Amino acid sequence: MIRALWTASTGMRAQQMNMDVIANNLANVNSSGFKKSRADFQDILYQTSKAAGTGVAGSEVPTGIQVGLGSRVAAVQKVFTVGDFQQTENELDVAIEGSGFFQVTLPDGTSAYTRSGSFKKDSTGQLVTSDGYPIFPGIVVPENANSITIGSDGTVDVILDNESSPTTIGNLELVRFGNPAGLNSLGRNLYAETLNTGTPITGIPGEVGFGTLAQGFLEGSNVNIMEEMVNMIAGQRAYEVNSKSIQTADEMLQMTTQLIR
Q: Which of the residues 14, 63, 154, 245 has the least number of beta carbons within 10 Å of its own beta carbon?
């Protein structure tokens, strides 16, 4: 009976983490370029009372006796499916149609990666993220630029004062990974490279393996509210069932202790 108490408690802890993951997904339903997470579960140790194949009176037992000791969260995986596009008509908003990340430079000089293309101009005209991190390679928009055009291949053109033909000031590049699920989430819509992501591959939008760019659009979160609500209900019911198992085991223990009276 004591074993049932501990086993059910592991299920409650696992479902609590599952609810934490779901809550974070729902909290970021409007975060540009956000990728939802999914909790993966697995069973843990088993207590073996009789091993399968054990010989008994010249015969072999076809099945043994094993009792599991609960479950746990094995991993929390990012799901990098493409989110819905939202038209903003802002010339500095860029969405990635397909695979790839924008590369940005952090204050310590290291690189981070993002799917959020909500860019702005700083005081020098450099394209930066909402937190002021410059994109890489850097692009500086001249002060006398009247309009900015970002092509599907990442080419950035501007129309300068007193000029009718566009001037190219740079190119947006994309980075992809062999295992994007291994990226480390930094918050602020940023990811960092890890040993499990593989070597980052840089390329031009539209090349093989890379998506194209869409100016005036933002990629929304890939969180499906209805799916998350269903997962929340299922997680809540699983938590209730495990708590009921603890209550039932406690009642059985109580009945056992009353036998000696």
A: 63
